[in-house]
Specification:
nine-stranded parallel β-sheet; two-stranded antiparallel sheet; 11 helices; 19% strand; binds flavin-adenine dinucleotide; flavoprotein; NAD; amino-acid biosynthesis; FAD-linked_oxidoreductase-like
Length: 317
């Protein structure tokens, strides 16, 4: 079932969902199941699985640089299929522009369709390590809007090399990313919202937000998006702080603000066990307010660990 159909079926009731990251290359999938199992009692109608792009690693060999391509966390589609069948839950593979040609994306989408996966999250991806700006892969897309266009084309039977008279057309429900504190490269919130509107006009069915720690940022964003003519569900994506290092890391990587009160509470902690507790409590309060506001889904970034998400969900669902 599509994410938007789940939202419609819930009839105003807030749903619980989460995002997982594939295990590192060579690791066992059991570790992932061990983290998903405790969350299934909260009946997530869908689970997102992230994708990492390939990274180029340069290794010096006899005075020359040899390029090695690594993808630390492959397996997004395989994991989506495995989870879908093991838990009878819908899965949402993240599909990236960066690192993939349009042909590779088409193959991936065709595979999704064969596997009965009809939700995808269309994303551009970040700049590669050591590069300041995102560079489009040769033969790939430069912006998520172009990827949305490709997926919509496929929905209407239009493949890269011609229209196919297929009797079993794909019918993907498309999610895209939104940024309550604006995307780090966007010159202004206004221009970022304009770009988001372009993704929705191209055919995106719903938006999932970047993490935020102050709900006002989300409420203001939803308001501004509505004013800009964006009328699809905007799902808040939230994450509990788990370690002290997040105080520096999250604002630096995602260009988001942390509320002073939260910083103060974390700084008072003697160890990361206490930080975790503060993070969980903050996230519960955030979630309660979002629930009261009637958000369609509370979507948690689990980062592969379920214990804190379980503690949060237990207090709410
Ligand atoms: P876009 O929508 O393409 O926007 C990128 C930037 O370009 C923005 O600043 C936008 O304002 C601007 N822009 C858009 N269109 C144009 C245009 N036509 N001309 C000029 N500027 C334009 N990353 C991963 O690698 N793997 C994941 O699994 C993953 N999952 C994510 C899930 C969520 C919910 C979110 C919020 C992010 C996720 N990301 C993931 C991170 C994401 O890839 C980055 O934030 C990336 O930098 C931007 O992706 P986007 O799809 O928002 O890009």
């Amino acid at each position: 079932m599509k994410v938007t159909e789940h939202i419609k079926k819930a009839n105003g009731k807030t749903l619980f969902s989460f995002e997982i990251i594939p295990p590192k290359k060579g690791k066992n999938i059991q570790e992932l199941y061990n983290n998903i199992d405790p969350l299934m009692e909260f009946n997530p109608p869908f689970i997102d699985v992230t994708t990492s792009r390939e990274e180029f690693v340069y290794i010096e060999k006899e005075g020359l640089f040899d390029r090695k391509i690594t993808r630390m966390r492959p397996g997004t589609l395989g994991i989506c299929a495995a989870i879908k069948h093991k838990y009878n839950v819908d899965t949402v593979p993240h599909v990236l522009c960066g690192g993939f040609t349009k042909e590779e994306t088409e193959y991936l989408l065709v595979d999704c369709h064969y596997l009965g996966i009809n939700n995808v999250m269309a994303l551009r991806g970040d700049a590669m390590k050591g590069e300041q700006y995102f560079k489009a892969t040769k033969g790939g897309h430069a912006y998520a809007t172009q990827l949305v266009n490709q997926i919509k084309d496929l929905n209407s039977g239009k493949y890269l090399h011609g229209v196919l008279d297929v009797d079993d057309k794909a019918d993907f429900c498309i999610g895209v990313a939104g940024y309550p504190e604006k995307h780090l490269e966007a010159p202004s919130m206004k221009s970022d919202l304009k770009r988001l509107k372009e993704k929705v006009d191209a055919g995106a069915d719903y938006v999932v937000t970047q993490m935020f720690f102050d709900n006002n940022k989300y409420f203001e964003f939803v308001e501004a998006a509505k004013k800009a003519g964006i009328n699809v569900p905007i799902i808040p994506g939230i994450k509990p702080i788990a370690v002290n290092r997040h105080l520096q890391l999250l604002p630096q990587v995602f260009k988001i603000d942390l509320p002073e009160t939260l910083i103060h509470e974390v700084e008072k902690c003697k160890d990361n066990k206490q930080v975790r507790q503060v993070g969980v409590e903050w996230c519960i309060q955030q979630s309660k307010e979002l629930l009261d506001a009637g958000v369609p889904v509370l979507h948690y970034y689990s980062m592969g660990k379920s214990d804190n998400i379980k503690a949060i969900a237990s207090a709410l669902f």
